[in-house]
Design brief:
By secondary structure, this protein is of the alpha+beta class. The chain folds into 4 domains: 90 residues, Uridine Diphospho-n-acetylenolpyruvylglucosamine Reductase, domain 2 (2-Layer Sandwich); 118 residues, Uridine Diphospho-n-acetylenolpyruvylglucosamine Reductase, domain 3 (2-Layer Sandwich), CATH 3.30.465.10; 117 residues, Alpha-Beta Plaits (2-Layer Sandwich), CATH 3.30.70.2190; 46 residues, no CATH class. It is built from 18 helices and 20 strands.
């Protein structure tokens, strides 16, 4: 307790009272992120306004061996920004400047608290935009996107966050400031930027991020296809991909997700559909016109109940508003819901949808499916009533069965939401002890005290890396050190 007081006194010399929160009422908003089933009250929350304040805070944490969690808007759905008991939260929302937009080099330099959509707004005057577009892009921050390698509706064509980050200035858990990568796409050095992206905050805090910008497409063509069964819609995804087309986006929504979207934003989706696909082509006009002909032939061969083509930009935005609002809109159908995130091969989507339907009936819990069909990234929303005894536990058990099914079909336990605290136990479903040993050794080489986002990603219990007695191949190669 005395050590904590010494640490807090040192913090108070960096931050004014309004940016140094220690009272219970001040800490409550930071006790959880978007995975609200978990709550931990931190020792304190600090709100830096400069990169220097972040660096000084991390160095204090290292000196006093106090764990820290970096947090943006708190939209993590896996508990990735859940506080650590007796640790602090470093809230980065005020480090939100877009430092530079370079239209010639097609890049932007931003701070970690910059909101995803604000980057595109800053780039639009130059005919550019930032491609990764998570559903939470109105509020999620680039720092959080980086930590979990966020994707979004258009990741099929343009890839994940990792494909759009050129360099990172970061403070490591011991307070050292490093720069990874550079402004060129042709960087031939070891890809340490790719290592940092998706590390879920285990390697430190990004302070300044250089993003790749894309030219805005000349035209968009957005098509909505409705189906009378989940399997038919899943099989249609397989046919679209097999055709050789590469749509900008290929999204899937089932009946429950459609109902929620209609109730929330009146997206005007076809009534009575069991599932809809949103397929969007984009690019030069001549190219899109030719691809549209092929796409319509493919879709018509899948015998949809209805096909709707966006007539103008307002109609296109209405279609997308329904998809983007689906997660929050499901709250209209159920007092509580659990969002899961797994990946399966696209060729298995029809079977996977049927199996999720079977599990839904087995557990007596409704499941709304809305996801990035183009890369098989499922987002089943499991509806339950938390006021019923055991309801949450049943929902978690069902979620676990869906994750195991993803692995059994050759997929992954996460596509873009990360492991966080929610899916730590399932890491062993995908990786053996040697795999996790290698991951832990790399983490310990960068953060030997495990003060950066402690307790995330890795399974509970003693780390395999701490039990390993012989030299590790990465150590032999000089990439990591146990000293």
């Amino acid at each position: 307790m005395m050590e904590n007081q010494v640490f807090l006194t040192a913090l108070s010399k960096i931050y004014s009272a309004g940016r140094f929160l220690t009272k219970p009422a001040q800490l409550i908003p930071y006790e959880s992120d978007a995975l609200t089933a978990y709550q931990v009250r931190p020792l304190a929350v600090v709100i830096p306004e400069t990169q220097e304040e972040v660096i000084e805070t991390v160095r204090l944490c290292d000196h006093h061996q106090v764990p820290f969690v970096a947090r943006g808007s708190g939209t993590s759905l896996s508990g990735g920004s859940l506080p650590i008991k007796d640790g602090i939260v470093i809230a980065l929302n005020r480090l939100n400047r877009i430092l530079r937009v370079d239209p010639g080099e097609r890049l932007a330099v931003v701070e970690p608290g910059a909101v995803n959509l604000d980057v595109t707004k800053a780039a639009v005057p130059y005919g550019l935009y930032y491609a990764p577009d998570p559903s939470s892009q109105l509020i999620c921050t680039i720092g959080g996107n980086l930590a979990f390698n966020a994707g979004g509706a258009h990741c099929l064509k343009y890839g994940m966050t990792s494909n759009h980050i050129l360099s990172i200035k970061a403070v490591l858990p011991d307070g050292e400031v490093v720069t990874l990568g550079g402004e060129s796409l042709e960087d031939s050095d070891l890809n340490l930027t790719g290592l940092f992206v998706g590390s879920e905050g285990l390697f430190g805090i990004a302070l300044e991020i250089t993003l790749r910008l894309m030219p805005r497409p000349e035209v968009y063509q957005t098509i909505l296809a409705a189906y009378s069964s989940l399997e038919a819609a899943g099989d249609a995804v397989t046919k679209v991909v097999a055709s050789g087309l590469l749509p900008g986006a290929l999204e899937f929504m089932d009946r429950l997700a459609i109902q929620a979207a209609e109730a929330a934003v009146q997206a005007n989706y076809p009534p009575g559909a069991e599932a809809v696909l949103i397929v969007e082509l984009e690019g030069d006009r001549d190219q899109v016109d030719e691809e549209f002909k092929v796409l319509m032939e493919v879709l018509e061969s899948t015998r949809p109940d209805a096909i709707r083509i966006a007539q103008d930009e307002a109609d296109r935005q209405r279609i997308w508003k329904g998809r983007k609002s689906a997660f929050s809109a499901v709250g209209r159908l159920s007092p509580d819901f659990l969002v899961q995130d797994g990946v399966v091969p696209r060729s298995r989507l029809g079977k996977v949808m049927a199996e999720i339907g079977r599990l839904s009936q087995e557990y007596g819990l409704r499941v709304a499916n809305v996801f990035h069909a183009g890369d098989g990234n499922l987002h089943p929303l499991i509806l339950y009533d938390g006021r019923e005894a055991g309801a949450y536990e049943r929902a978690e058990e069902l979620a676990g069965k869906i994750l195991r099914m993803c692995v059994e079909y050759g997929g992954s336990i996460t596509g873009e939401h990360g492991v966080g605290v929610e899916k730590r136990a399932y890491l062993l479903e995908m990786f053996n002890e040697d795999d996790i040993d290698a991951m832990q050794r790399l983490r310990l080489a960068i953060d030997p005290r495990e003060i950066s986002n402690r307790g995330k990603m890795f399974p509970d219990g003693t780390s395999p890396a701490l039990r390993f007695s012989g030299p590790h191949p990465l150590e032999k190669a000089g990439i990591i050190s146990r000293e």
